[in-house]
Structures are given as C-alpha cells and as structure tokens.
From TrEMBL:
One of its GO terms (biological process) is protein folding. One of its GO terms (cellular component) is membrane. It is found in: Membrane. The lineage of its organism: Bacteria, Pseudomonadati, Campylobacterota, Epsilonproteobacteria, Campylobacterales. It comes from the Bacteria. It holds the Pfam family DsbB. This is Disulfide bond formation protein B. The chain crosses the membrane at residues 7-28, 34-53, 65-84, 104-128. It comes from Aliarcobacter trophiarum LMG 25534. Keywords: Chaperone, Disulfide bond, Electron transport, Membrane, Oxidoreductase, Redox-active center, Transmembrane, Transmembrane helix, Transport. Belongs to the DsbB family. BdbC subfamily.
C-alpha cells in the first residue's frame, strides 16, 4: 500500500504543480503540456480510489497512462534540448513547445519535472506489481 500511497502523492504534487504554473504563475501550457496533463490528472483519482477501495487491478488501470505520459515527457524534453528539431513539434499555433518558462540551475524545466514525476510513478507501480505478484 505504501507504493500506491507514494504514487498518489507524486501524482497529486505533479497535478497541483501544473495548476500552480498555469493558474497562479499564468504560464500558458503548450500542446505537449496539455497531453501530459491528460495522462497525469486521472492518476490522482485512480490512486485515491485505490487507497479507499484497495484493488490489485490498479496496475492495469494506471500503467498505460503512466507509460504514454512518460513517452510524451521524453519527447518534450528532447524537443527542449534541441535533440529533436523544432519542425517536428506538434505545437503549430499558440505557445511553442520549445518555450522554457522555468529554468532553475540551468537544467530544471517543467518538462523535466513531468518526466521525473512519470518515471517515479512508473518505478512505484513496478515495485507494487512485484510485491503483489
């Protein structure tokens, strides 16, 4: 249960952080940021319901969301790092996906925080799956 609780905390912090950046700091999310939100926000509810009503199928429900969100965050980080050319960016109108709103210590960006969140949740889910199997 500690793994699901930890995953719940990480997804909750990621969700609140993204809402803080957009609603308080007034950072307009790009398309890739929205896609990552689409896969992060439901995880809060999935993990919360699993904490209230324990079910071993939580891995089956959350794993696809985490993996897809992780791949989008990897793509976004590669775009920010200019490894992927900006011409392959899905952000054709509005805020460009390569905009770097936050850059602490020269490397901590919002897409990096998203990647760390998805990766942490993935590790917790795999640990949970090994524990219950």
């Amino acid at each position: 249960m500690i793994y699901i609780f930890s995953a719940f905390i990480v997804s909750l912090l990621a969700t609140l952080g993204s809402l803080f950046f957009s609603e308080v700091m007034q950072f307009v999310p790009c398309s890739l940021c929205w896609y990552q939100r689409i896969f992060m926000y439901p995880l809060v509810l999935i993990f919360l319901f699993n904490l209230l009503f324990p079910d071993e199928k939580v891995f089956k429900y959350s794993f696809p969301l985490v993996v897809i969100g992780l791949f989008i965050s990897i793509y976004h980080n590669l775009l920010i790092l200019k490894i992927i050319p900006e011409t392959l960016s899905p952000c054709v109108s509005g805020v460009p996906c390569s905009v770097d709103y936050l850059n602490y210590f020269g490397f901590i960006t919002i897409p990096l925080l998203s990647f760390i969140s998805f990766l942490t949740i993935l590790i917790l889910l795999i640990s949970y799956k090994r524990r219950v199997s």
